[in-house]
Each structure stands twice: as structure tokens, then as C-alpha cells.
Design a protein that fits this description.
It is a single chain. By secondary structure, the protein is of the alpha/beta class. The protein contains 7 helices and 5 strands; from the N terminus they run αββααβαβαβαα. Strands 2-1-3-4-5 form a 5-stranded mixed β-sheet. The longest helix is centred in the first third of the chain and has 20 residues.
Amino acid sequence: MTHGEYDAWLETAAAQARAGLAEGGIPVGAALYGADGTLLGRGRNRRVQDGDPSVHAETAAFRAAGRQRSYRGTTMVTTLSPCWYCSGLVRQFGISRVVIGEAETFHGGHDWLAEHGVEIVLLNDAACTAMMRDFVAARPGLWHEDIGA
């Protein structure tokens, strides 16, 4: 994979994050890609919109992908470092790679994933970082609720 391909995949996740923000939710988006580069599913954090604390972006993308015989070789792309809940999903189902837009505003479980054989690609995307910093500044209470702080 090339950096340009990862950037294109990240844009899919970022579009989901922007949609979530426009809906009054938390701007985190994700997409799950197959080993052949096919988009399997995409989603956004919908905790606020659905009143369901389990609808994180990664879980929404995973659910949208539907049942797969295997998740080996798949790539989860997310605008923000995955929390422990979403990191557990990656490990549980054997997702091979996680591409992360940014980990400055929240450093989730990606180090743990790397220690357990998951390939981590951290893009340090300025737009993802700015979107989260702006959100955290504007809605700190909602952000702290989301991360369990």
C-alpha cells in the first residue's frame, strides 16, 4: 500500500466524521477495507444520534461490512486512535491493519494493538487533528463522556 492509497481511504472515514459532526455527534469516522482494497463498510460515531453508547465509528463500520468469513487481511481506517473498546474489536476479529488519521487528541489502544501483531499506520493528518481539537474545545463535556473520562 502507498501513502496516497491510505489518504484516499482516510477521506472515506473523514467524510463520515464530518457527517457525524453535522448531525450533532462526535466527529469520528471509520471504514473497513478488504484485503483487495474493496470498501466493505463505513460508519461514524453515533452515540449521541442513536442514544447508544456502543455505536463508535469502528463498530459502525464493522457492522456495516456485514458478516465476513474472515477478517484477516482487512484494514480498519479511523480518523482517531481507537479506544480500548474498538481496539478489542480489532483483536477479537483478527483485523490485520489499522490506519489512523491522528493520535494527538486521543492516544487510544493502538500501541497495544501493535504489540499484538496488528500493523499500525499513523498518518498524523492535520485535518483530522484540527477537527477533533475544535470539537473538544467546543464540547468538552460530550467528549469526556465519550472517552469515559
